[in-house]
Amino acid sequence: MASSRQPLRRTLAAAVELRPVDRDLLRTLLRRQAATVTVVTAPGLAANRHLPALPPAGFSATSFTPVSLDPPLVSFRLDRESSSWPTVARAEHLAVHLLAAGQQEVARTFATSRIDEFVTHRGWTSGPFGVPLIDNALAVLLCRVVRRIEAVDHTIVLGEPLALGTWEDDDPLVEHRGGHTTTFGPWPSPW
């Protein structure tokens, strides 16, 4: 059986054209990876002697990923040129919302730069630590920020989930090829 696989591997390897990676080629490739649409929110911050007050922040983050189960850790990344970065850079707590299939408008609002998302989208409440919580999300993770790791022009934020909220077992909103779609349930079992 192993010998029958060898010609297939050579055929597949020969069919893949390897090219130097540039920004546009990488972006095209990454658009092919389907990801649950998540919105990260952080509370507004009061001014102190050295730093100005900051408004609450909210943004779409397709880079959300679990990191560890023990201890529980999740991560996302954010461009430091983002209008949300000053708030996220100082926030001690934040929330990650996994959006449900019907929340395309919420996703569009929080993916739009340089607007007040919390005025545009009114379906939210203030949660623990003042973190804005978006209504009707598929799931919400309230997190304590444990580390920020600089990665060129982005920062990877590690969060420790402190609380988890889930609603109905619905399909997630998925980003794929630059648009929104959803899952269609499990594949039927062949057995």
Describe it.
The protein is α+β, with helices and mostly antiparallel strands. It has helices spanning 2-15, 23-31, 85-90, 104-111, 117-120, and strands at 35-36, 38-42, 57-60, 65-69, 72-79, 93-98, 124-126, 132-134, 139-151, 154-166, 173-176, 179-182. It has a 7-stranded antiparallel β-sheet. Strand 7 and strand 8 form a beta hairpin. The chain starts with a helix and ends in a 9-residue tail after the last strand. The mean pLDDT is 84.
What's the quick description here?
This protein has five helices and twelve strands. The protein is α+β, with helices and mostly antiparallel strands. The chain is globular, with a radius of gyration of 20 Å.
Write the layout of secondary structure elements.
Elements: H1 2-15, H2 23-31, E1 35-36, E2 38-42, E3 57-60, E4 65-69, E5 72-79, H3 85-90, E6 93-98, H4 104-111, H5 117-120, E7 124-126, E8 132-134, E9 139-151, E10 154-166, E11 173-176, E12 179-182
Antiparallel strand pairs: 1-11, 2-3, 2-6, 4-5, 5-10, 6-9, 7-8, 9-10, 11-12
